[in-house]
From TrEMBL:
Residues 1-20 form the signal peptide. Keywords: Signal. PROSITE patterns: PROKAR_LIPOPROTEIN. The keyword Signal applies. InterPro entries: BCAA_transport, Leu-bd, Peripla_BP_I. This is Leucine-, isoleucine-, valine-, threonine-, and alanine-binding protein. The gene is braC_1. Residues 33-376 form the Leucine-binding protein domain. Belongs to the leucine-binding protein family. PANTHER family: LEUCINE-SPECIFIC-BINDING PROTEIN, PERIPLASMIC BINDING PROTEIN OF ABC TRANSPORTER FOR NATURAL AMINO ACIDS. It comes from Sporomusa termitida. It comes from the Bacteria.
Length: 388
């Protein structure tokens, strides 16, 4: 009988301990809103991921200082996808199933984001990429992905902007397209540029390709040089862009090179050198020379926090943070489905890069800029506002 009483007492104590443990965990969780960050913290495009994270952290810090959301503090749980698609998928799975986040920021690149969207759809957890511009991220076979969103404009807009810039501003009649064949981002941009440049009466003389992490581009550049185009369209990321421009100028290729937001990183000047980037232009989401008061305030806040100028990836990360914080606040809930609904209903929200409305395909309607590189410095060239 005594053994039975002792066993019963031990069982009661164990159960109390279990319940106390559960209660403690539940109490802790109720005071925190856990958001995931699936980013390229190491690897070939780590600069993009880390800068986007800096922007997100600043938005979260400001929100927490203002009291958080629903009286709760926001916590950012980061996972490093190492700039690889397979790792990005693993990171998304971990954040959802192990870390139990209610929404995810990232990844930074289109290819890595495309590798994760199905995970978010299957688990019904919103994913918001600050900088993934490929249109397939939010739309699959003509249907909007319910849980996929972005805070940047999409590739067709960039391709259209640069095709019009080539035709109208530079009066180019011929072009060669030089793409990163390992990048969905690069391929999508090339297609939209070619479509509109041709419609404008231009001729694409040829297409060449390289792969991410290539070092020597002289063979394909020799082919491009022989075609002597008015412009070369190079939709790629800063590491390869810097090396290509350096080698191209060494070969006497002085025609304008055109690019997109993948160029928008200070590292491109370190890699190419200032002079080789002269006579090159790219589209982006943000210019530090913009005098809009919201841009000015964001730059001041960022410089105070990090002691340096923000890049476009920092600005878009900050915008993504504001977009998510606003959605959770309006949803008044940490239910992923309600957060999804609120993101979808975003209208005329003031972000650092301008007013944003989320369209039916979960893409933001927003302005873009064209930037010229001159002696290693970015010079604001023109601003383009899409028709609503």
């Amino acid at each position: 009988m005594r053994k039975k009483l002792v066993a019963a007492a031990m069982s009661t104590l164990l159960m109390a301990g279990v319940l106390a443990g559960c209660g403690g965990g539940a109490k802790e969780e109720t005071n925190v809103i856990k958001l995931g960050g699936n980013f390229e913290l190491t690897g070939s495009v780590a600069n993009y991921g880390n800068q986007a994270v800096n922007g997100i952290k600043l938005a979260i810090k400001q929100a927490n200082a203002a009291g958080g959301i629903m009286g709760k503090q926001i916590t950012l749980v980061l996972a490093d996808n190492k700039s690889e698609a397979a790792e990005a998928t693993n990171a998304a799975t971990k954040l959802i199933t192990q870390d139990k986040v209610v929404a995810i920021f990232g990844p930074a690149t289109s290819s890595n984001t495309l590798a994760t969207v199905q995970v978010s759809q299957d688990n019904k957890v919103p994913v918001l990429t600050p900088t993934g511009t490929n249109e397939k991220i939010t739309v699959d076979n003509g249907k909007t992905r319910p849980y996929a969103f972005r805070s940047c404009f999409i590739d067709p807009l960039q391709g259209t902007i640069m095709a019009n810039f080539a035709s109208n501003t530079l009066t180019a009649k011929t072009a060669v397209i030089y793409i990163d064949n390992s990048s969905d981002y690069s391929k999508g941009l090339a297609q939209s540029f070619e479509t509109l440049f041709t419609q404008n009466g231009g001729q694409v003389l040829g297409k060449e390709a390289f792969l991410q992490k290539d070092q020597d581009f002289k063979s394909t550049l020799t082919k491009i040089k022989a075609l002597n185009p008015d412009v070369v369209f190079l939709p790629a990321y800063y590491e390869e862009v810097g090396k290509i421009l350096k080698q191209a100028r060494e070969m006497g290729m002085n025609m304008p090179f055109l690019g997109t937001d993948g160029w928008d990183d200070a590292k491109v000047v370190e890699i190419a050198g200032a002079a080789p980037l002269n006579n090159s232009f790219f589209s982006s989401h943000f210019s530090s020379q913009d005098t809009d008061p919201h841009v000015v305030k964001f730059i001041a806040d960022y410089k105070q926090e990090y002691g340096q100028e923000p890049s476009v990836f920092s600005a878009l990360g900050y915008d993504a943070g504001l977009l998510m914080i606003d959605a959770i606040t309006r949803a008044n809930s940490t239910d992923p489905a309600k957060i999804r609904d609120a993101l979808e209903q975003t209208k005329n929200l003031q972000l650092s890069t301008g007013l944003v409305t989320i369209d039916a395909n979960h893409n933001p309607i927003k302005s873009a800029v064209v930037i010229e590189m001159k002696d290693g410095q970015q010079i604001f060239k023109e601003k383009v506002t899409p028709k609503l």
